[in-house]
Design a protein that fits this description.
- Helix 11 (about 350-365) runs antiparallel to helix 12 (about 370-380), helix 12 runs antiparallel to helix 13 and helix 16 (about 445-450) packs antiparallel against helix 17 (about 460-470).
- The protein has helices at about 25-45, 55-60, 105-115, 175-185, 205-215, 235-240, 250-255, 270-280, 280-300, 305-315, 350-365, 370-380, 385-400, 405-420, 425-440, 445-450, 460-470, 505-515, 520-530; strands at about 1-5, 15, 45-50, 55, 65-70, 85, 95, 120-125, 140, 160-165, 190-195, 215-220, 245, 265, 320-325, 335.
- The protein has about 525 residues and is an alpha/beta fold.
- The chain has 4 domains: about 1-145 and about 305-335, Rossmann fold (3-Layer(aba) Sandwich), CATH 3.40.50; about 160-300, Rossmann fold, CATH 3.40.50; about 350-410, Serine Threonine Protein Phosphatase 5, Tetratricopeptide repeat; about 425-535, no CATH class.
- Strand 7, helix 3 and strand 8 (about 120-125) form a beta-alpha-beta unit.
- It contains 19 helices and 16 strands.
Length: about 525
């Protein structure tokens, strides 16, 4: 199904390969899908095409200046569209719009598929450079979320709600630790309205009703969750003429928010007293409300989100040997020489989530498996489906010889991605899963999982396939086990946050894990080859 806008010769034409969205809940269509279409239609002569497509024919039919692929939304329903002939028309720039959150296991499905289609640049409202997966971060430009003025504007409602707490996490859920800390302080002091997230149980406070509810409220509470992200709510609240009350974070300040000037940045110790003061001093509250509203509509509507246009212009005009960088939410993109050392970035917050991943993998490097498990448990306590957390936990368990528990962690990642209709799955997670079966002596299961996605090339997966060919020599002449080490070929990167390893470094790491698993004969064979490089 095609949705084609009226031609506008004053804007570059974009072919947007997006949808279909029939399987999505109303709240996700209203909050995630429609605003993106309206943003793109403001900046481009937009042609949206849904479903399976022959890419080459689509480009020939619509003659775009740029093509954007949509990553889709994480869902247990629907499926990923199939695009053929994506190698045609290389003269037309290809970019990708990545909707997945910082913690989503489906990020790889987005980046991996788009890499295969030849996408050169990614745009995401979910995380800036420092929050993007390591393998793709040099190609990610952050588009901060924005005020969708269809719903978030001054509706002229009478202010009658002192405090609104709209959305998830105020009374449960470790996704939103700041909300859980401030909510008890507020409910003891003020009349309030609370509406839970309208998923999985839909309710009426969505779209226009949601915007009007905010518009009636003097203060509306929101935050960026455990990952301290710049979520839509932080813009929608002042956009609907309510005062945003939120956590003080670097990325919020980078986006121009100033405590007492256009928002209230506070914590559980002082939130109630600060709101009470403003409610008792209406002239100050009214002035703060007006400044907040004007700030949001001057700087944070779809009109200000012209990052794709900026990139396209720079791409066409910058000298050879240059690249495009982003240094702040509020600064324009710019072209710099390829060897330019960037020192200023859009902030990405340190949080219990990022600390858990970083500390966990650092502990794995020291073979301090109990500390690694504790760190990963902290992360998974917030986002229990995060791939890096389960993969790290599986590595720690494998390092301690708990093979059955390790299998369960690696398999959980595979099963979640499969349930969300992932087309590609993490090659490092796949390698560890097959290796764990090998360590347990279950060769048939090791072969089964190592053989999956036979066209995928990655040094970790290649090493496990090579090891299986040594254990089962009949495999050595069959694809994908016909691997000769060293082999550094990569055609699918991983969400593994550790520095890149060579194939012989992977072999040394896997060799050490097989020592713990009691695979003495295999370890002796690897040592005899002299190929393994140990840490």
């Amino acid at each position: 199904m095609n949705e084609v806008t009226a031609a506008n010769t004053n804007k570059p034409r974009m072919l947007f390969l997006s949808g279909p969205w029939d399987h999505l809940e109303t709240v996700r269509k209203v909050g995630l899908v429609d605003p993106v279409s309206r943003l793109l239609a403001h900046h481009f002569d937009l042609i949206t095409v849904s479903g399976d497509q022959n890419y080459g024919e689509g480009v020939e039919e619509h003659a775009p200046a740029i093509v954007m692929f949509d990553s889709g939304c994480d869902t247990f329903q629907g499926r990923t569209p199939v695009f053929t002939d994506t190698h045609r028309h290389p003269e037309v720039p290809k970019v990708g719009f990545v909707r997945q959150d910082f913690h989503s296991p489906m990020r790889l499905n987005a980046y991996g598929r788009m890499d295969a289609w030849g996408v050169e640049q990614f745009f995401s409202p979910s995380y800036p450079y420092l929050g993007a997966p390591r393998a793709w971060r040099d190609r990610v430009i952050f588009i901060p979320r924005w005020v969708d003025t269809t719903y978030f504007r001054d509706w002229g409602e009478t202010k009658c709600i002192p405090v609104a707490m709209l959305g998830a996490g105020f009374f449960s859920s470790d996704f939103y630790p700041w909300r859980r800390r401030v909510a008890p302080q507020l409910v003891q002091r003020f009349p309030f309205v609370h509406a839970p997230r309208p998923m999985p149980h839909p309710h009426m406070i969505v779209g226009e009703n949601y915007g009007r509810m905010i518009n009636r409220s003097f203060f509306t509470i929101g935050c960026g969750g455990a990952s301290r992200s710049l979520v839509s709510k932080l813009f929608e609240i002042p956009g609907a003429r309510s005062v945003l009350v939120t956590e003080d974070t670097a990325i919020l300040r980078d986006a121009g928010f100033v405590d007492g000037e256009n928002c209230v940045l506070t914590d559980e110790d002082e939130v109630a007293d600060r709101l009470a003061y403003l409610l008792d001093h209406r002239d100050e509250l009214d002035a703060l409300t007006e400044r907040s509203y004007q700030f949001a509509h001057a700087h944070h509507t779809h009109r200000s989100r012209d990052h794709i246009n900026q990139w396209l212009t720079l791409r066409m005009t910058m000298p050879a040997g240059h690249r495009v960088i982003q240094e702040s939410c509020m600064k324009p993109l710019r072209a710099v020489p390829a060897d330019f050392e960037q020192t200023q970035f859009v902030p990405f917050e340190t949080s219990t989530v990022t600390e858990g991943i970083s500390e966990g993998f650092d502990a794995l490097g020291r073979q301090d498996y109990p500390s690694a498990e504790a760190a990963f448990e902290r992360t998974l306590g917030h986002y229990n489906y995060m791939l890096e957390g389960h993969m790290g936990m599986g590595i720690a368990l494998l390092g301690r010889g708990e093979l059955n528990k390790a299998v369960a962690r690696f398999a959980r990642n595979v099963n979640f991605q499969t349930a969300c209709h992932a087309v590609v799955r993490d090659p490092v997670n796949q390698a560890y899963l097959a290796l764990t079966f090998l360590g347990g002596g279950n060769i048939s299961m090791a072969v089964k999982y190592a053989a999956r996605a036979p066209r995928v090339k990655h040094p970790a997966l290649g090493c496990v396939r090579w090891l299986l060919a040594q254990v089962h020599p009949g495999l050595a002449s069959t694809t994908p086990f016909d691997v000769a080490l060293p082999d550094e070929t990569v055609n699918l990167c991983s969400l593994d946050p550790r520095p890149v390893r060579s194939s012989v470094e992977w072999l040394g790491h896997f060799r050490d894990l097989m020592v713990t698993a009691g695979q003495d004969a295999l370890v002796a064979y690897v040592d005899k080859t002299g190929l393994a490089q140990r840490a």
